[in-house]
């Protein structure tokens, strides 16, 4: 069986939202599956000595324009959240809890729901009431989910995911690894397609 596409994302990344909407279809066209990894971009930025593009005055306006344009290009709804970026560690801890207790499909559903909530409805996932409401919408026990994101076990699991991403050279999101080959960015879709089809490169 062909190896899965490893897909690293952050719940506060607009490009991760967009890529999450197309990566499964791309993988399926080439007989692959997707293995998602929720991470915190802040952790990778710190090691790579980078900052979010919206924190640079000269990049901010272009980046905000490109987020919307890139979503429109893929035919996706998009709205910049009122607060952006947001801390996403709690949503990511819930992702890993689902991945390891209910399986990758449940985690993928959570990733999709969370990214759509942030970038189509402006849901402030960094706020406990909003995150619990999203959990309830997904058929999860909201109080149990709150216990999860406060549990040292799932805090440690997310830290491990960040450490593994950094060790793999991940410094941005979305980040894809296909057969050991890294691709950074939502705009790598065509290259990933060609790679999966066997080249040429």
What does this 3D model show about the protein?
- The chain is α+β, with helices and mostly antiparallel strands and 201 residues long.
- The protein has one domain (5-196): Glutaredoxin (3-Layer(aba) Sandwich).
- It is 57% helix and 9% strand.
- The chain has 9 helices and 4 strands, in the order βαβαααααααββα.
- Helix 1 links the parallel strand 1 and strand 2.
- It is globular and about 50 Å long.
- The model has no long low-confidence stretch (mean pLDDT 94).
Helix-strand topology string: EHEHHHHHHHEEH
Overall average residue pLDDT:
94
Write down how many β-strands occur, each being a DSSP E stretch of 2 or more residues: 4
What is the number of helices?
9
Strand content: 5-15%
The helix content is: 55-70%
CATH topology: Glutaredoxin
Kindly give the count of domains: 1
Q: Tell me which oligomeric state these chains represent.
A: single chain
Look at the structure and name the CATH superfamily.
Glutaredoxin
Q: Under the CATH scheme, which class?
A: Alpha Beta
Q: Largest beta sheet, briefly? A: 4 strands, mixed
The low-confidence runs, each spanning 5 or more residues with pLDDT under 50, are none
The strand order across the widest sheet is 2-1-3-4
Q: Give the structural class.
A: alpha+beta
End-to-end span in angstroms?
23 Å
The appropriate CATH architecture is 3-Layer(aba) Sandwich
